[in-house]
Design goal:
It contains three helices and no strands. The protein is mostly helical. It has a domain of 37 residues. Helix 1 packs antiparallel against helix 2. The model has no long low-confidence stretch (mean pLDDT 92).
Length: 67
């Protein structure tokens, strides 16, 4: 479907950051701009899929090269 363009460290950091934002969304219901924390879905999804559309546009890859 998508070509993998994220390395292991990149993927782990994206998943952790996205999960932290989503946890904050549910943990802090009193925030006035709480909906902004839902943007954590984006790094979570790209980290789980291993493919970043922005990386594809600019031709960036953090994957190790196969030899």
């Amino acid at each position: 479907m998508f070509t993998k363009n994220e390395g292991t460290v990149d993927r782990v950091l994206r998943v952790l950051f996205g999960a932290a934002l989503l946890v904050a969304f549910f943990a802090m219901p009193e925030l006035s701009y709480r909906w902004v924390l839902l943007l954590g879905i984006v790094p979570l999804a790209t980290g789980l899929l291993g493919s970043c559309p922005v990386y594809s546009i600019f031709g960036i890859s953090t994957c190790k090269l196969k030899q």
